[in-house]
Description:
The protein is α+β, with helices and mostly antiparallel strands. It has a single domain, classed as Alpha-Beta Plaits (2-Layer Sandwich), CATH 3.30.70. About 25% of the residues lie in helices and about 30% in strands. The protein is built from three helices and four strands. Strands 2-3-1-4 form a four-stranded antiparallel sheet. The longest helix has 12 residues, at about 15-25. The radius of gyration is 14 Å and the shape is globular. The two termini are about 15 Å apart. The relative contact order is 0.31. The model has no long low-confidence stretch (mean pLDDT about 95).
Amino acid sequence: MIVRVSEAHVRPELFDAFREMIVSAVRDFPGRHPGLVDHEVLLAPPHSLLYISRWRGEEDLVEYAGENWRDQPVVLPGEDTYLVEPLKVRHYTLAPVT
Length: 98
């Protein structure tokens, strides 16, 4: 499993509108992307929003985000107008805790 974290630093006056746009955009992702195990939007108003997605594997991320999935975030049309800096993306794998 690969955990993908997209971090947005949002213009405070546009935070609510950005939240609504992101939640609306990702709502149908599970049906459109079979490799998506689960996902969530985490909020830290008024500046920060995280989109956390968990994927079965690399092949699923390539299908969703393209060959450069490790370095390039998936950016929705018009998203940059809400942000104070470019979207950041990071990836994690799970370490067994036993």
